[in-house]
């Protein structure tokens, strides 16, 4: 597995994702961001950690022969993955020292690195003590050792290891009994533990507190632990501060309750202290452990690592390294360990350079790949990139070459990659070619201007369509003076005079006079109408949202001075882009969907993209990995975040798979798909096998048909839900990525048939067929995007039927979640809303958003500004014609005003392939004057189009204290 290639693929995916939401227009800002990305600002060079080899302490057989361990230990401590008679364990020197310390009756602390086998350093002595007691005939039923973990996950992991050692190869029962008691156990398991006391009890400190205080446990387990011999605290460094004091008191109470006067206490930690030399570290750890355990822990019993080399440092010199550079490392063990570059890598990445004579000390500070390459390049006067490539080749080869003495790879190394969201760009209020640009948050730019004024910095937001930048500001007026300050919450709509944006442009400045703006066509078409005398005027009601030409100094003061910068103040909510004239007709809408900032990719979405990239790469290129290793383990701050992220990832993966399958199905059917076949074709395009989605892995006979029917019903239901208006900016749908075009059967013919329009509003009657079709299409889009669709799966009864099928035949992630609610599907009414209206109903009135759309479309054709009553009549006529022609169905009878409720017939919807370049416009809520339509997000377009099929089988699960016992 080429881990550096996995890293490169990850960075490529993350970079494409974070940069896909905006295409920056300004050359200087774009160059600044590109330069920032080139330095790895969001994805710095990875850090390398090389686990040095530990000195050997001999095999378990050796210790049995020497009398250090009981003879049965040789049968117990074996690697039994493939056979009960697996290879005998070889111990590290620090593990042997721990066994000997326990044999001598000492309390001790093991402070060795991660992956050094610390758990064996207390499990082997405990097992040995029990075996010897049984051999001597002094063994009594009861708890001999209590092992305390800070997390249940560690206890769970240890139980699995104990099962391998103590159960495999012992069909008559384990020679030493053990049990977990952490609060995850069922009532039956607890009763069994109470009646059949284990020799070793694994728990956590919270449960240990309950064992000491609950009468039932105190009578059962505490009494069984009288004369307790071992107390182990794993991950000793976690017990600090108040929690450490609580645990220290708990330990003393346990000793008193168990009458454990001769108890041996054991602690393990990889990160206790790094200050001073080894003797100083031993003294410090000894003091901490003695206070925590309440028993003396001698400094000599603080056991550290004894490291060993596998290579010979003497073969390293600059000339040999220079000759060696560029050649592939040997793949055999003997050749590999004699390689001078391998020796150099082990020396530099594995050990401290200032270690005491004769002692090998693990490197405390990791190096980045660039730093390591820089050291090698300096030493041999070589090329930096060639050195980096050679070091990576050595590490990857070392992870494959097996050391015959240990049975493990020669090198075990870790790659630490840090990722961050992009910081926003801040600029001064100056012309683009002169302004100061930075990505570091600060209030002012360094220095002052020629007049000694402070240069205030403002965060940038960018138009999602054209990439024009805007300074996010707060406008403050006090004592008749106006100033601008940076606005921190630049996602909020504001909606008051204090929130807005500054538009500054040298090549396309905003006119100082409204008349000039109208003449130059700087306002969106939908904002202009013809007034008296034939001149252009602003549509009534829009005046208060117009940009205001202002002059701003570098310190944020509004003035008329010639030394100020010409700008335009744009109120928030953002009304329209002053560059591309993309207009947003709903003034109350949030600005987040209109303007982007460079740090708004969304944490959950980013995490899902990262997780997807890593696991997908492991599955695609990890031929040498076991299937169980092709997984990702993620840690979060709390259980709520774990649940949220697991759910988000599963939703992300399923949505991508469904959309990708729909795209593939459309590519195979250029003529489009209808209601009758779309679910079947998408199911086929998914390419799932019953083992992936069925509760019955190999269904046969009639069950097979029912299983596939259940899957088709769920997929059809999901496809209809995805027809709703795309609201997730961080996950645009197929329409928004131009991979899907939704059309309506017979609509061109309906619009062209003049008989349909006779007796309707004059503007409709005289309209040309193409425009009538466009207007009718927008109306049907409104119903579809509101889910006012007449289809069984969106009714409560239909949903319940799908739910029953899903419960019987499907499993996660393709089954419906237990708590999923039926969709809120209402009706569309050609009239104004009434008090008490249902939230899911849509009202298309002459004064609403669709009414404004109608007036924009027909003002010029009418030769005058259309009244809302005319717009209402046109809307009503459209509903009636579309109902007469079978595209709409009446589902709610006329009310007292004669207004009925309608839904779109599912049979008339056609899913058609898009071109990947021209997304469907929502012309009701925003208008675009630029050619080419809305901008396409390239990352998600390519994800749906090219990579969605590779996500099959990806699934996330949370593992917290809230997870049911059966899932642990």
Write a concise synopsis of the structure shown.
Residues 816-840 are annotated as: Disordered. The protein is an alpha+beta fold and 968 residues long. It has 30 helices and 40 strands.
Report on this structure:
Helices cover 38% and strands 16% of the residues. The chain is α+β, with helices and mostly antiparallel strands. Among the domains are: 94-306, Rossmann fold (3-Layer(aba) Sandwich), CATH 3.40.50; 310-414, no CATH class; 426-594, no CATH class; 669-720 and 791-823, no CATH class. Strands 19, 20, 21, 22, 23, 24, 25, 28, 29 and 31 form a 10-stranded antiparallel sheet that branches. Strands 9-10-8-11-12-7-13 form a 7-stranded parallel sheet. The protein has a 3-stranded antiparallel sheet with strand order 15-1-18. A hairpin with a 7-residue loop joins strand 4 (78-79) and strand 5. Helix 28 crosses helix 29. This is RAD3-like DEAD/DEAH box helicase.
